[in-house]
């Protein structure tokens, strides 16, 4: 495939600072892998429903693919050639005609606990207010600390820090990966939360690149930057998520890690109000991740029983 300034490879992405950083990282890896100049690529920011509607909780806007639909549409109609995504925002299945199996090396998957003073989650005073728009984080926080109040908190890193300064909440959570990709790892007063204390979202910290099925030039281009290990981990986590049929309305957490040459998966489901959590850890051969994830999801669903994810009134 010949890429030139006249016919650059168009990389679709959301327009947020984090999304753009991920698109640039992808471009830089493609430049290095294929010895191509910057002018062989064009970054194309695309506004999604999730970006447009910022005044309502995500779960109210509803539906899967809030941050991806418009981008996938452009990919299907040829407006862009590839799309770069935060894998944790990706539905477990892609629209017909698209495939998402190229991953960059995963960043730190942990959540970071953020306060103006940089204090640790365990030191948060009784009755404090925590801001988050993530159902998973809300349920996990309330499960561990029923004394806390959780308020809705949307917006980018700067907006959230401003809200802390304005006293809207005393603390919030952000993904470590996002902060370091933004180069803000040291600017933001944060404490990484151990994964055993707060299990991350499925695929947190991983970047995925989506393409059209059957475009062999692009297949070859992307194969050179695919990170196999991340692929093995995400196979387990994404099978777990797919079997649970999760959406942004279901508090689900999952993390796969390598351990002594095997793959260890921890999965967790919570009631939205944080009154109950069910989880387990299992080990399997690295190539059996998808089966491990599926089986774990089925066991957790059975233990949870019907109505587990319903909001209690
Ligand atoms: N839902 C928004 C979103 N999607 C991916 C990340 C962080 C980066 C990542 O997990 O790869 C974030 C922000 C956050 O949770 O702090």
TrEMBL record:
<dbReference type="InterPro" id="IPR022419">
    <property type="entry name" value="Porphobilin_deaminase_cofac_BS"/>
</dbReference>
<protein>
    <recommendedName>
        <fullName>Porphobilinogen deaminase</fullName>
        <ecNumber>2.5.1.61</ecNumber>
    </recommendedName>
</protein>
<keyword id="KW-0627">Porphyrin biosynthesis</keyword>
<dbReference type="InterPro" id="IPR022417">
    <property type="entry name" value="Porphobilin_deaminase_N"/>
</dbReference>
<keyword id="KW-0808">Transferase</keyword>
<dbReference type="InterPro" id="IPR000860">
    <property type="entry name" value="HemC"/>
</dbReference>
<comment type="subunit">
    <text>Monomer.</text>
</comment>
<feature type="domain" description="Porphobilinogen deaminase N-terminal">
    <location>
        <begin position="9"/>
        <end position="218"/>
    </location>
</feature>
<comment type="pathway">
    <text>Porphyrin-containing compound metabolism; protoporphyrin-IX biosynthesis; coproporphyrinogen-III from 5-aminolevulinate: step 2/4.</text>
</comment>
<feature type="modified residue" description="S-(dipyrrolylmethanemethyl)cysteine">
    <location>
        <position position="248"/>
    </location>
</feature>
<dbReference type="InterPro" id="IPR036803">
    <property type="entry name" value="Porphobilinogen_deaminase_C_sf"/>
</dbReference>
<feature type="domain" description="Porphobilinogen deaminase C-terminal">
    <location>
        <begin position="235"/>
        <end position="301"/>
    </location>
</feature>
<dbReference type="Pfam" id="PF01379">
    <property type="entry name" value="Porphobil_deam"/>
</dbReference>
<dbReference type="GO" id="GO:0004418">
    <property type="term" value="F:hydroxymethylbilane synthase activity"/>
</dbReference>
<dbReference type="InterPro" id="IPR022418">
    <property type="entry name" value="Porphobilinogen_deaminase_C"/>
</dbReference>
<comment type="function">
    <text>Tetrapolymerization of the monopyrrole PBG into the hydroxymethylbilane pre-uroporphyrinogen in several discrete steps.</text>
</comment>
<comment type="similarity">
    <text>Belongs to the HMBS family.</text>
</comment>
<dbReference type="Pfam" id="PF03900">
    <property type="entry name" value="Porphobil_deamC"/>
</dbReference>
């Amino acid at each position: 495939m010949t890429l030139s300034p006249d016919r650059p490879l168009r990389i679709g992405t959301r327009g947020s600072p984090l999304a753009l950083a991920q698109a640039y990282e992808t471009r830089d890896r493609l430049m290095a892998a294929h010895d191509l100049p910057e002018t062989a690529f064009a970054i194309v920011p695309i506004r999604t429903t999730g970006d447009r509607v910022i005044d309502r909780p995500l779960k109210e806007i509803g539906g899967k693919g809030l941050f991806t639909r418009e981008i996938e549409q452009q990919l299907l109609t040829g407006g862009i050639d590839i799309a770069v995504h935060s894998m944790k925002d990706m539905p477990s299945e892609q629209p017909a005609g698209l495939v998402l199996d190229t991953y960059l090396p995963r960043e730190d998957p942990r959540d970071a606990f953020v306060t103006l003073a940089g204090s640790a989650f365990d030191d948060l005073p009784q009755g404090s207010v925590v801001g988050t728009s993530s159902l998973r984080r809300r349920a996990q926080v309330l499960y561990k600390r029923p004394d806390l109040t959780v308020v809705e908190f949307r917006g980018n890193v700067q907006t959230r820090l401003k809200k802390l300064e304005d006293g809207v909440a005393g603390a919030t959570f952000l993904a470590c990966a996002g902060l370091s990709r933004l180069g803000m790892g040291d600017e933001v007063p944060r404490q990484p939360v151990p994964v055993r204390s707060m299990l991350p979202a499925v695929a947190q910290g991983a970047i995925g690149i989506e393409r059209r099925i059957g475009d062999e030039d692009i297949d070859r281009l992307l194969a050179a930057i695919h990170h196999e290990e991340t692929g093995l981990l995400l196979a387990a986590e994404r099978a777990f998520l797919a079997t649970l049929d999760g959406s942004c309305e279901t508090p689900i957490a999952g993390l796969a890690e390598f351990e002594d040459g095997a793959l260890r998966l921890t999965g967790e489901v919570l009631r939205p109000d944080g009154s109950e959590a069910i989880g387990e850890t299992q080990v399997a051969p690295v190539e059996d991740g998808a089966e491990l994830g599926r089986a774990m999801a089925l066991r957790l669903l059975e233990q949870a029983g019907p109505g587990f994810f319903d909001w209690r009134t």
